[in-house]
Each structure stands twice: as C-alpha cells, then as structure tokens.
Amino acid sequence: MGKRDRRIDEYIAKQQPFAKPILTYIREVVHEGCPDCEETLKWSMPSFMHHGILCGMAAFKEHATFGFWKHTLLVGERTGDEGAMGSFGRLTSIEDLPPKRELLALIRKAARLNEDGVKAPAKAPRPKKAIAMPPAFRNALSKNKKAQANYEAFPPSHKREYLEWIVEAKREETRDRRIAQAVQWIAGGKARNWKYM
Length: 197
Hints:
The protein is α+β, with helices and mostly antiparallel strands. The protein contains 8 helices and 4 strands. Strands 1-2-3-4 form a 4-stranded antiparallel beta sheet.
C-alpha cells in the first residue's frame, strides 16, 4: 500500500479554490494507478515516488500543473502550452487533464519504466549564440603572431571564454586591459581559466 504524506494535505489546503479539486483528483488517480507510490515534497511541490520520481503536481495563482518525470517517454515531445511546466500545460479544471482511463495508463507505464530502471533521455544541449570578435581584440592578436597562431589553434570553448570575458567589460578601459592580458596569456598558450586547470 502506498504512503501518504500529511504535508501534501497541507499543501492542497493552502491552494486557490479552483486548484484544490484538481490536485485532489490527481492525487487519487496517481494512487489508483500506482498503489505502492509514496508521497513527498520535492522542490516544495507534491511529488510521487516509485523506484525514483514518478510524477509531480503544483498549483499557482491561476493554474495548476501535473507532469511525469519521464515525460518524453510517456507523452512525447512537448507541444502547445510551452509556457507551463508539467506534461499537460496549464490546468484550470479537471477537464484539462486527459480522460481518467488514459491518465491511469500513463501512470502505470511510468511506474513500469521506473521499475525497469529506464532513464529519461538527456536533453539536447542548446547551441550557444556566436560572439563576434571585437575589432580591437582582432587588431591586438594580429600584432602578435604567436598569440594569433595559438588563438587559432584553441578549441572553440577556449576562444569563447576569451571573447565572453572581453565583451562583458562595461568600460572601454577595462576592455582594453583585458585584451592586453588576453594577448599575453594566449601568446603563452594559456586558456582563459588556466589558473584553475
């Protein structure tokens, strides 16, 4: 038999009137779909555990959410309500959730995935926006052939570290000082954070 947590009762009791029936319904359906689950609070939100995190719910001022830890394996890529967390977007009533039969099937599938030790797929890293090389930095490198050759041989991450450091300077004097320091370090074959390597 699953384990209920009185903190979840307290959490639900504190929510807006529209959210209480949604959270109560989700809680009952999760326990019906996975009778052995245990309730807890994770990140100050009600969560259901079964061989790891199964799913969780939360309420906000104008909506509630419910989501599976292994969302992608259960319902696929997120579409539609991208601004809301959870697997089903912004919930303002129980009708915003899938039908009970479908929800139970998803909960049972999520429980099996956890029992089988299936890991959630890693999110693909977002590509970083390119940083334009400041003309003053380009000119300083061109005046020091060793620094220029070393810089061109650096991996993209080392180049980016120097560019970020230079372009985030707020004052021109700071930028110029950083450029001079960067050229000196690069000529010596040093990465931007060489002190920590």
